[in-house]
Structures are given as C-alpha cells and as structure tokens.
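@channel anyone free to eyeball this complex?
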Amino acid sequence: MRRTLMLCLVAATAACSREQAAPAASAGTSFASIPARHYGLGRAATPEEVAARDIDVGPDGAGLPTGKGSAELGAQLFQQKCAMCHGPKGQGMPPAFPLLVSRDPKAEGFKFASDYKLPHSIGNYWPDATTVFDYVRRAMPLLQPGSLTNDEVYSLTAFLLAANDVIPMSASLDSASLMQVKMPYRDKFVPDNRKGGSEVK
Amino acid sequence: MTDASTTPSSEARREARLETSDDTISRRQMLAGAAGVVAVAAGLPLAAGGQGAKAPAAPAPVPPADPTKLQGAPTSPVGVRTPYFKPSRTPTGETVGNSLTPLQDLSGTITPADLHFERHHAGVPFIDPARHTLLIHGLVATPLMLSVDDVKRFPQVTRTYFIECSGNGRNAYREPKPDLTPQKVAGLVSNTEWTGVPLKILLDEAGAKPEATWFLAEGGDACLLSRSIPMAKAMDDAMVVWAQNGEPLRPEQGFPLRLLLPGWEGNTSVKWVRRIELGTRPWATRWETSKYTDPLPDGTARQYSFDMDAKSVITTPAYPQKITKGWWPISGLAWTGRGIITRVEVSTDNGRSWHDAELSATAGVKAPVRFTHPWEWDGKEAVLLSRATDETGYVQPTRKKLVEVRGIGTDFHFNPIVGWKVAADGAITFHGET
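replying in thread with the prediction:
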C-alpha cells in the first residue's frame, strides 16, 4: 500500500489506484509505469563538460584517444611510476598491490574455480585489453590518479600486455592496434545464467 | 604518530581482520610499499576512522545506585549510545578494503548508518555537495548536468533495501574456521531506508533514447569506480539516493549521491556517483573483468552476475557466545536479491530436521527479514543452521552443493547454509562445512 501511494505521488496520475496495486512481490517495486515527464531541472551540459569526464574506453576500442606508446617506453615508465607498489617485475604485493604480470601455465585450463591461489593477472585472466588502458588512465598511479598523458597510458598498456606475453616487447600501441589485441582467455567469459528458482547454478 | 595500534597484539588483531577480505590493504603492506611512505608523508588517511584513532580510554561512567532518586541528564543536541553498547565495524585503517557490520550486536533489520559496512576501492572522498554534479550523457536527447539540489527537486521515494557485497562470506566459504563471528561470516551486508529519486525519472529528463541498452555509472572517488548496468535495471527499480535512515548519506556510503540497485551486488550501487553514460554494450571495466566475475568448474567465468541469491545467517547464539541449558531464541537475518523471503527454516540437529522459523518483520522486497525460533538447549552437542527460501522457489544451498556447482575458488556470490556448533560445555563455534 505504501509503495502504491508513493508510485501514485511520483506518477502524479489519477489513474493510479489501490486496486491496481501489484501483488506483494518484487514486481510491485518497479518504477517502469511512471510516465515520462519533463521537469525542466538541471541544465544542458556543454560539450567541454562532457569531454572532461567522458574518459571511458569500451572493449571495442570506442573512446580510445589519439596518441601512441611503446612497450619499451612503458617498461621505463613502469619502473618510475608503478614498481614502487607493484614490484619491479609487476609481481605485486598482494593483496594490497595486485600482481599484474603472470602467464601461469596452470591458467591454461582456466581452472580458477578449483585453485583460488592462481592469480587473476592480466595475462592469466583479463578478457579485454582495453580494460588495462581504461583502468590505468582513470585510477593510476595510486597517489596521482589521472596524471598520466595518453601517450604514457599507451606505453604502460603496451608494457603490461607485453610483460604478460600477450604482445611482443617490441610492440607499440595506438587506438587502432590496441582494439585489435585479443586477450588469451577472452572466450572463457560467459553471461550469468542464474535465474532463481529451484536450480542452484 | 602516537598510535596504540602499533602494539603487537593489536597488529595481530589487524591481521586477523585482514583474513575476512579479498584485497584489503593492510597497514603493514601499505607501509611496506613505497606508496605507503608517500602516503604518510602526504598525510593521507592511512588510519582514518581506524583502530589507530583510539584515544586513551575515559573513565567509565558510574550509574547512580538508584536512578529514580535524582534528576537525569539534560537534553542534548545529538544523542549518543549508552555506554553499555559499543558496537564496532572492523576497520583496517586503509583506503582500499572493507569494514564489516557487527551483525551479532544488532536487532531488527535496519542497520544504523554508522554501522553500515564499508568497501572502498580508493578511500572515502571528501566532497563538497555544492560542487558535486551528476552528468547524464551518451544516448540521450540532451546531455544533462544536475546539481545535488536539482536531484532533490525531482519526485522522491523512500524504500528499504539491503546492500550486500558479493564478496561477502568468501573466507567462511573457502576456509571455514571455528573462530568466525557473524560479523566475519556475513558482515558485508547492511540494510537501510534510502530516500532518493527513481533513476528512470532522471533518464526521462535527459531524454534517454530507446536504442540504449546499457549504462555506465561512474563514481567521484580517486579510482572513478565504474560499472556497466543493463538499461532494464535503470527502468525497473534503480534509484539515485541522497539519504540514509532519514539523514544525508554518510560519506562512506556515497555522500552526496549514490546509485542504488536493489538486490544487486553492492559494487554496482556506485557511490559518489557523478556520471551516467547511456550506450549499447557494457564497458568491461576493471570491476567487471578482473574483479566481480565468478570462475566456474567448467573452465569459464560468469560475467555481469548481478543478482544476490537468497541467504540467511543466525546472528545469535553465535561465536564467541557461551550458553547454559534452557531457552534461547535463535535469531538471524535472511534476504534475497530476487524479491521476498518466503520461508526460513532452522535446524538444531545439523540439518536432520528443520522447523519453520517465525518471520518477525513483514518481509520486504529485497530487504532482510528477521527470523526467530525458540529453542531449549538440553546440554547436548548441537549444530544450529538456517535455510532461506525466496519467492522464486530458490532454496539456500549447502556449502557442498555450492562447491560442486561453483568450485572452491569461485570469487563472488557466497550464500551457503552456515551455522554454529554448540559444544557440551555451551561453547559456540562457527560451523561452515554444510
């Protein structure tokens, strides 16, 4: 009843009545029936404002900026900006500072479900190369997030992928080449098939 | 730093707490890393709100012999807890990690705001609400910039929902040990009366385009935590909230604005939300690839696994209580991300027989119910278990069943039946091997 009332208030429609209340189940909490309405609140964001925040990169490469970098340069940057926490070889200090570099032969069968000590490193686990770029750009280095230039992020991404044996250490990356990189275990990731009901999945 | 927490005993306690989380940065490790040294030099909050903040204990107040024979204390601007109740989360004092709700100390179903569990990936940002904005862009008619005050002027609703970290119970699942408390077993769940605006209303205001199928929600913390969410959830029961149990959100719960996705893994309820972008596919952020994916025994990993399945835990009696013969109420919490809890059963004989527990609060949608079962202990060894069923017919599984279908190394979504072993002397220990 309380929910129905709230929906009535929100929807501000005369049509909403107690009789239309959904049965006491999760369906009754949906806002889907609220009619679209324009309140005139807020303001249009400028293209500059959108650009300033719109830094995300998709797995298809959408959002990758111009620029380029090399694994070789990335190796130097890594020692300067990352090794203090992640170790000179990217071995990390788990669990605080995650291990980044590993191509463990045991990951070959993707048997993480039976071995939780097997690290979810970039080479062992990560499904998308673009995630490396996106995360480094948005969150690293830990104490100066957002301070890297796009070229530096390309270089660090190239180094991390090379150190994980995904691309050669001689490789360079730009938007076109990064979106072509296929991670070794990309095909291991599947959608959620749980649906409630009697079956435990 | 004068810091009582550097004594060996408290350091050991800190390490013990570390066991309950996946990637908590321990103080020791933080200091061991060069970054830690920089953090200290920069005055970063290594121990903000943590054990390190302990002041010398004030003398305990002494109550009068007969409180009816003298005037009590005057009124006060902000109430404080009785000195006889000192609940505590389990802070580690670091910026990446978690701090668990003391489930064993709480009654009913609502979690006091200051005891809501915490899980941060880059600490708790200090945000001026006058400068915080929420940008909605991508597949919309007009990119929309909303101030916090703007958001509060839309039609609002107040609803009670739990949030559970999908890593809740990892250690109890992988390595069940006798000395785990309810807090350590399941303290990454909390329940709150939230006030906010349906996300649908904000997306309608921006003119969401029908071709949008996913949106990205991004927080305003130092890692710009971001998650991809199907638009169907946005148009169902998602909210952008600003209040928690009647007052503004606590900073550690997302002040001034938080996305709230009822029944979904807590990480998706992005705190300090500052940007929502509509698109046509998920973004594969670090928090939905490296983290928050579920390896399975068939050599795959489940991705975008949002719903929290039905779960229950007995919060009393529990470790480290010790009981005597006689009547004890068995009491606990049950919840499901898929709607309503329809039944909770309790066993006192390790699952040989089950009894319907009384649900002492009206079951809410995606909100926990408090269950109770009166029990007279006869002084013999016993194992107390609880088992929840939700409106979809899903029955909380045993640990054995979960290990069979998910593997011991699966990384999130742990909802096995758990319980407490009562020894003949009344000592109670955790029983996780169901």
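from a first look: The two ends of chain B are 46 Å apart (CA to CA).
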